[in-house]
């Protein structure tokens, strides 16, 4: 049953993307940008509904009261495709940094550029970082935007050792806006590079914002400490659910470490 529900969800998920992209094209491109945001947000909510009804996986996102007004940086853990689509419906005007090659894809690329996302050329990291900061600052000066950036860069397995990149420190330092960490363990239910979709409830939490103006080392310490502590708590909760998802080796190892340290409280 797990296999067939996963197969059904994957097929319907991508079919929904194609059908909605075609169906909404006239409205999307003829509407002002702020109204056109309805389309990707509606698609995201549709995906979460399909995920629940077909795969049996609910999405529970809390901490919305921690999202500031105006411009800020949203810094989620990156474990799954789920965290790429679940959060922007909660934002007024989300802003993504992405590879320029994605803008060349018919329809998908046109949708991206309508929302004034920031494409980045491959090459020197220092040059790319300067270009990202300049483009993001220009967007935030134009109107409030919420930059979504994954501090670890690539997807990592739940419970894996944190590997935060220094790029977010520079962006935080130069933009001077709050950073909202986001904790979750979605990779337990929608694993990276895996076909299966496990039932249960994905819990994610917007944490209290880290204010601008902190020293770089202090900011990085807070970002890692607060995010990882909340992820550990969610990992323990997931492992104790009535029907817990399979624990990958990284998650099992982290749970053992927490138990040994006495942090996996009942």
Provide tags for this entry.
single chain; 266 residues; alpha/beta; 7-stranded mixed β-sheet; 10 helices; 14% strand
Short description:
The protein has helices spanning 2-23, 25-30, 33-36, 38-55, 82-85, 108-114, 125-142, 167-175, 216-239, 249-261; strands at 57-62, 72-76, 94-99, 118-120, 146-148, 179-184, 200-206.
Structure commentary:
This protein has 266 residues and is α/β, with parallel strands linked by helices. The protein is built from 10 helices and 7 strands. It has helices spanning 2-23, 25-30, 33-36, 38-55, 82-85, 108-114, 125-142, 167-175, 216-239, 249-261, and strands spanning 57-62, 72-76, 94-99, 118-120, 146-148, 179-184, 200-206. The chain has a 7-stranded mixed β-sheet with strand order 1-7-6-2-5-3-4. Helix 6 (108-114) links the parallel strand 3 and strand 4. The longest helix is centred in the C-terminal third of the chain and has 24 residues, at 216-239. The mean pLDDT is 93.
Helix content: 40-55%
* Total of helices: 10
Strand-and-helix sequence, N→C?
HHHHEEHEHEHEHEEHH
Briefly note the structural class of the backbone.
alpha/beta
Quaternary structure type: single chain
The averaged pLDDT comes out at 93
The rounded distance between the terminal residues' Cα atoms is 32 Å
- β-strand amount: 5-15%
Rg over CA atoms, rounded to whole Å, is 19 Å
Largest sheet: 7 strands, mixed
Segments where pLDDT lies below 50 for 5+ residues? Answer: none
The coarse silhouette is globular
Total beta strand runs: 7
**Strand sequence of the main sheet, in spatial order?**
1-7-6-2-5-3-4
Transmembrane segments: 12-30
Protein name: 1-acyl-sn-glycerol-3-phosphate acyltransferase
InterPro entries: Plipid/glycerol_acylTrfase
Pathway: Lipid metabolism
């Amino acid at each position: 049953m797990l296999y067939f529900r996963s197969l059904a969800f994957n097929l319907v998920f991508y079919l929904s993307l194609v059908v909605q992209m075609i169906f909404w094209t006239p409205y999307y491109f003829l509407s002002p940008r702020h109204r056109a945001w309805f389309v990707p947000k509606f698609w995201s909510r549709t995906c979460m509904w399909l995920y629940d009804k077909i795969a049996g996986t609910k999405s529970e996102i809390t901490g919305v009261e921690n999202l500031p007004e105006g411009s800020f940086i949203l810094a989620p853990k990156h474990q799954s495709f789920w965290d790429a689509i679940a959060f922007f419906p909660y934002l007024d005007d989300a802003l993504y940094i992405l590879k320029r090659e994605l803008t060349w894809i018919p329809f998908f690329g046109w949708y991206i550029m309508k929302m004034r996302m920031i494409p980045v050329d491959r090459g020197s990291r220092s040059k790319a970082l300067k270009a990202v900061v300049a483009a993001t600052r220009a967007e935030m000066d134009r109107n409030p935007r919420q930059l979504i950036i994954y501090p670890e860069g690539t997807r990592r397995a739940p419970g894996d050792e944190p590997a935060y990149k220094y790029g977010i420190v520079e962006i935080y330092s130069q933009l001077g806006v709050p950073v909202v960490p986001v904790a979750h363990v979605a990779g337990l239910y929608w694993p990276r590079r895996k076909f299966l979709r496990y039932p249960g409830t994905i819990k994610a939490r917007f944490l209290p914002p880290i204010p601008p103006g902190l020293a770089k080392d202090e900011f990085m310490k807070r970002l890692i400490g607060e995010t990882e502590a909340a992820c550990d708590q969610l990992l323990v909760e997931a492992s104790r659910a009535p029907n817990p998802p399979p624990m990958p080796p990284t998650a099992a190892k982290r749970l053992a470490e927490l138990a040994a340290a006495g942090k996996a409280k009942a």
